[in-house]
Amino acid sequence: MKHRVLLTLVYSSGLRVSEAVQLKLQDVDPERGTIHIRQAKGRKDRYTLLSRTAYQLLEQYIRKERPGKWLFPGGTEGRPLTTRSVQHVFEKARQKAEIRKPATVHTLRHSFATHLLEAGTDIRYFKSC
């Protein structure tokens, strides 16, 4: 479930894999529908979207797994999941889904932007995401 939630957030919020693995519970604000990304690219903080659907899935994961410091803990105590682990999980999911086109976790970030544009969202609205 952890991997499904993580990949869902990457796609639905346009996260970089490095941002997703660094998330903490306090970074998620369901009332405002946002995720606070701390020290993103360029060492800048930013906010991105949190969909209701993604939050509902996240909420189930939190109730079931009760993560500690990191929203997505890794195999080493007190450390988050590694970006390499996420890339490996994504590759396995891509193969299981029999997707033959080349794709990476970062492809999900591009898909987020593409789908917002296709839905008619003004690019200025999510350019900072």
From TrEMBL:
State the InterPro entries in the record: DNA_brk_join_enz, Integrase-like_cat_sf, Integrase_catalytic, Tyrosine_recombinase_XerCD
By its UniProt entry, which Gene3D superfamilies does this protein fall under? Intergrase catalytic core
Q: Is Cytoplasm found in the keyword set?
A: no
Pfam families for the chain: Phage_integrase
Q: Which PROSITE patterns match?
A: TYR_RECOMBINASE
Q: Known PANTHER family for this protein?
A: PHAGE INTEGRASE-RELATED, PROPHAGE INTEGRASE INTD-RELATED
Under which name does UniProt file this protein? Tyrosine-type recombinase/integrase
Provide the transmembrane region boundaries. Answer: none
Identify the domain of life: Bacteria
What taxonomic lineage is listed for the species of origin?
Bacteria, Bacillati, Bacillota, Bacilli, Bacillales
Q: Tyr recombinase domain spans which residues? A: 1-129
The scientific name of the source species is Paenibacillus chibensis
